Amino acid sequence: MITVVGMGRKSTDLTTEGAKAVREADVVVVKSALTHAWKAVAEIRDDALSCDEFYEKAEDFDKLNADIAAYLQSFGNKKVAFCVVGDGTDDTVVPLLDGAKMVYGVPLYAAAVANKLPEGTVHFVAADFVVARRVLPVPTVVCCVDDKYVAADVQLRLAEAFDDDTPVSVCYGDGKTTNCQLHELCRQRFDYRTCVFVEPKPLTERRVFDYYDCADIMTRLRAPDGCPWDREQTHKSIVKNVIEEAYELANALENDDTANTVEELGDLLMQVLFHIEIAKEEGEFAAADVYSALACKLVDRHPHVFGSVVATDADESLTVWDKQKMKEHKIKGVAENVVDVPKGMSGLMRCQKVQSRASKGGYEFADISHVVDKVAEETTEFLQADADNKLMEGGDLLFAVVNLLRLSGVDSETALMKSTQKFVDRVVECERLLDGRGQKLDDMTPQQFDELWEEVKKNAQRM
User: How do residues 414-425 score in pLDDT, each as one tens digit?
Assistant: First the structure.
């Protein structure tokens, strides 16, 4: 039977119950003779063992913890008192000791928080904190910050969720504390008992946030005393905003504009949060439903990653995705597959997606030359059409051109976006040249305009 005895911050912290456990144990093991715990145990009995030899042999902390746990368990049915610094929960071996009894001591962090943890505080040992999956902007205690190197790693992880100037309390084994800002943390002094406590600044003073902060802000904006405009919005009233923000993000990405990409990603995320908040208020669905739907989709449509299906390249991966999607949507044939393409897409995007899905069902030209002939045919029909049929014939012509681009491996939406932007850039350059020369477009002959346009094209090619 193993009893974990928390030895507190200093040798005088041993509790009455802890001292009793040490006296009555068949075997007493102190995690390290280099700590105050050894001195405290030595005042009760002189036959204690230490685990210092494991520190010298272990290749990493995981191996160290496992070796010490195995050592403690090797005593079988004997009563073992395992003495560790802090309250007992601070130690990284304890989670490996299934069924161990706990005799809690004074927490290492007690002085840093005036013996009272704020609600929602999370507690880490430094070795676990630096490899934690995520760091949240909540009150946080990190114990056993042994030296400046560990402190530097802790500081870097904390900076993921806290501003550099966030106040930090550094607590030492003697109960004394030092206050500094987060960016100064690694400059403090440290030993095996050092603990760090940090909590986020007030919302309006912060500049580092996470997803949950953004969700909380959206809730606040929709509250009765929030923003009148935000409170009035519905799913349908902000549909156009989703489309607009998606296009603005696409533009930033196309321009390799990193700063604007960050901003536009945030704007698009705001639309997601907006709809989630509205749905939550209306009892339609919760945020967890959205996350769960996404996670399930990603897992289910990647059986070549999470299952036994094999996909050796990108094309095979897309084929697997499409098959899984058709299965999920209970689509049994090409007709249902093309009908399933959302009507809310842009005309070009929906056109190309419909063509792509139809082609997988056998609706495809045998050769690209036939598509070229189709474009010529539709051009002639458009030019010959009367006013009543221009719209439909124009659509047929566009449909044929999109087909030609698709079979050539070109995304029509992207192609048109780039060509439109190229035209915009050339018009801007024309106006710049005309203004610099004191000329006006209306005063130019067609030949002069052609020469100007060619000049602009050549200038663009040099850039």
Answer: 899 889 989 999
Give 453's contacts (C-beta < 8 A, 6+ positions apart): 426, 430
- pLDDT exceeds cutoff 90 at 223: yes
Buried b (16+ CB within 10 A) or exposed e, 170-204: bbbbeeebeeeebeebbebebebbbbbbbbbbeee
* Pairing status of strand 101-103 against strand 2-6: parallel
Residue in this structure with the two tokens 């949240």, named with its chain if needed: 136
Strand 195-198 and strand 140-143: the pairing is antiparallel
Distance CA 196, CA 112 (A): 7
407, 368 contact by CB (below 8 A): yes
For residues 334 and 361, the answer to whether their CB atoms sit within 8 Å is: yes
**CA-CA distance, 312 to 304, in Å (whole number)?**
9
pLDDT of 89 reads 84
Q: d(Cα 286, Cα 46) in Å, to the nearest integer?
A: 60
Structure tokens at 444: 């130019």
Beta carbons of 123 and 89 less than 8 angstroms apart: yes
**Identity at 381, one-letter amino acid code:** E
* Domains, the chain: 2-103 (3.40.1010.10), 110-205 (3.30.950.10), 211-282 (1.10.287.1080), 414-462 (no CATH)
pLDDT at position 111, please?
67
What is the torsional sign of CA 221, 223, 226, 230? Answer: positive
- Hey, what amino acid is at 99? G
Angle at 169 between CA 165 and CA 174, to 5 degrees: 155
Residue with tokens 């458009």: 382
Q: What's the mean pLDDT in 257-264? A: 96
Are 125 and 131 spatial neighbours (Cβ–Cβ below 8 Å)?
Answer: no
- Decide which of 275 and 108 is more confident: 275
pLDDT at 230 over 90: yes
